[in-house]
Write a structure and sequence with these properties.
The protein is mostly helical and about 180 residues long. Helices cover about 75% and strands about 0% of the residues. α1 packs parallel to α3, α1 runs antiparallel to α9 and α4 runs antiparallel to α5.
Amino acid sequence: MPLNFEDLYKVAEGLICAKKYEEASAIYIILLKIKPDMASLWHGLANCLERQGNVEGSKRAYENALKYHLIEDNKSSSLWAGWAAMKLGRVEMAYSLFKKFVEIEPEYAYGWISLAAAASKLKKFKEAEEARVLYRKIQNTRPYKRRECEGREMLLSVMNEADGVLRIFIENMVNEIRCNEK
């Protein structure tokens, strides 16, 4: 059975979690041909290009990610728009977006560590430390899985739906991922 858009997006996300940036960027480029105004696609591509050392390409992709995250304005938009702003050096904007996010989603640990990063860059050290304390508190009660393991799970979740060459590709990627939960 062929994969639908959401499944292929999950493959790209799984690859990025598994640090397979070259492969993920190829899929993001394909998906952007279908939905050129989807913020998370631009954000994923930007991350891949940055990890591959393509500074100019990642900057352009982060600009698009920021633009579309702000337009989408869904529950997580302010978090990811904040990170796009951080990557573009717009720390004040990132700080404001992270503050907005933790007000909306105070139980999401990554929001607090993101706020801590921006606050530190702005020399708001007391606020940064308070945010780190909240991050650790949440993280201790609900720890994250290792990213590689999360990526492997995403790929496994769509592998059986794929067929032909795409299934072989996903299977090969899954087999390359080393995931020892610790």
